[in-house]
Amino acid sequence: MTNQRTDRSAQSAADPRSAPLAPVPGSGHIFDVERRLSTVDTDEIQNLRIDGIARHLQDAGVDHLTQIGALESHPHWIVRRTVIDVLRPIIWPTRLRVRRWCSGISPRWCSMRVRLDADTGGLVDTEGFWIHMNKQTMSPSRVADEFFDLMATTTDDHRLRWRQWLDTPAPAADGTRYPLRRTDTDHFRHITNTAYWHAVHEFAAGTPELTRGPHRYILEYNKPIRFGEPLDIHAVDAPGALTLWFTVDQETRAIAQLCALEDA
Fold this sequence. Notes:
By secondary structure, the protein is α+β, with helices and mostly antiparallel strands. Helix content is 20%, strand content 34%. The protein has helices at residues 2-14, 50-67, 145-151, 193-204, 208-211, and strands at residues 31-36, 77-88, 95-106, 109-118, 123-134, 139-140, 176-177, 215-221, 231-238, 241-248, 251-260. Strands 1, 2, 3, 4, 5, 6, 7, 8, 9, 10 and 11 form an eleven-stranded antiparallel β-sheet that branches.
């Protein structure tokens, strides 16, 4: 196992898509709560769905800001990338331990780790690249010094930079039209994060060979999608990976990828 982790870490230097997520820190500020898994987030075999995981991440973010008294001063965030490692499936009924901490930060954005441990043995590891936004200008905004200092207690990376992982152009062939609902819209008038994951869940159902063991989802948001825009999804099921392009009038708005974690 040690050699596999070393090989994977070396490989991730060239391809960050295979990089292991940062472990739980031994000290510093960690948001730590317990929750009951609701049946509304489970699939037909009572596994926690991928869009259900996304909802837990969103709720953990809001609850974390509330706990540290930062919700009023830092209410608006946009997720640029989400990584979700399903290491052991979480199965209902169960209770979840939800831990959230910072794994990298800069004055206007941060990477936030969330780990979901089920008391029945399930485990999901995640990381999101969050950008602090000014809602009036719709541009990145500096976080307060006290917020920065608190988040920095769990990471040595205080100069976090954005690097896109998924940038392959969408296939030229027509995609599949995907309907959007008004309930998919957030306060920015953008399609919510979980709406993207609804689509990922639908297409991933056709690739059970990728999800029968530990697997990783990556979703990068390039440009918002608004309700009423004609959304097409292009899917390529290549050996070892499923890639989805979310396009509007042939413009790529987001890209998702699912792959197996062979040495997890």
